[in-house]
Fold Amidohydrolase-related domain-containing protein.
Amino acid sequence: MEEQKQAVSSVDDFTVIDTDLHLTEQQEDILPYLEEPFNKVLNVNNQEKRGQVEGGYLSQLYPSAGHLTPTDTGRAETDDVRSPEDVERAMELLSLDDAILTPGLNLRLGLVHHDELAAGFMTAYNNWIMDTILDEGYHGSMVVTPQKPEKSAEEIDRLTSESQIKAVMIPGGGVHPPLGREKYFPIYEAAEDAGLPVMIHNAATGIVGNYPIQWRGTKRYIEVHVPYHSAEQMWHLSTMLTNGVPVRFPDLDFVIQESGIGWIPYFMRRYDNEYGKKQNDAPLLEKRPSDYIRDQFFFTSQPTEGIDDPEYLCHTIRMFSGAENLMFSTDYPHYDFDYTDALLSSLRTEFNADEIQNIYGQTAANVFDL
């Protein structure tokens, strides 16, 4: 065991797969791919009116929350990732062997109040990423819109044969009702049939309308950012367990993204405790809720709190069988991304080489069929 720990000296010793490398697509990238009738409704081909559209109507569809934006912290996103060349540069910078590319702007898709237009943006983004990025040999997730589950299921069916699509992403921010409800079952059924895992990702924190209501009373970014990611994911995950989603879709894997790790063992024990007293509230479950989480749910690492405390970090990972369920992610190029070797110095104190390889790449290779 000790020899295995010492054998891992750097990230170059094993395969590294980033399970959340963000693109930074902009409106001008996506609008040319918007299909009828919305390209006509929004006049996206009329250059004279296009600026008015982008600065007006579309900015309301993708709103920002002024004083709650990350730039108020004195830090901002580092680099654009909008082209194959940008992706290659990012992967070299981060010493990555592979990555699952995820949306940037379209993480806000769940906040679009025009359901049909949200579906239009879904298709436009997927066509853009296929045409611009994935056709160059990279791997990514398609995005689906929770407002139109049937349309999303059709989109999954449309892209099933695209070998570079490795996951279905649901932008979880602002979604109502939560993702355990029956309304979303067409998405889960289509993803299960396609053999693709479902990723659930938070929206950008600085967006008005996120879980569970607007961030009323908040004045600073940090007071939103601390509780937001884990709180939203717990909300979705709790309803999914209560409504028996993993039982209904036993061959479907779920990937919970960008919410850290400290809340996971707490949630598992909290839900097990509640379930022991109120099993009738979750009648489809046939075993402990935490067992379903270990069997079908996976978690990406960023933001890894406690990185300077190896004892805390390793103990937390052990408490939810993290060597099998945790997958490395950077969240690059967001301002708070994790460097590739951020976990390694802590993991080497407790985990052997096989376990570290699982976290940094092998589990992702299995989940995403890489």
Remarks:
- Strands lie at 17-22, 98-102, 139-143, 165-171, 198-201, 254-256, 297-300, 326-327.
- The first strand starts at residue 17 and ends at 22.
- Residues 2-367 form a domain with the TIM Barrel fold (CATH 3.20.20.140).
